[in-house]
Amino acid sequence: SQTIHQWPATLVQPVGSPLSLECTVEGTSNPNLYWYRQAAGRGLQLLFYSVGIGQISSEVPQNLSASRPQDRQFILSSKKLLLSDSGFYLCAWSGVGVGEQFFGPGTRLTVL
Amino acid sequence: GQSLEQPSEVTAVEGAIVQINCTYQTSGFYGLSWYQQHDGGAPTFLSYNALDGLEETGRFSSFLSRSDSYGYLLLQELQMKDSASYFCAVRRNTPLVFGKGTRLSVIA
Question: Beta A107-111 vs B9-13: how paired, if at all?
Answer without folding.
Answer: unpaired
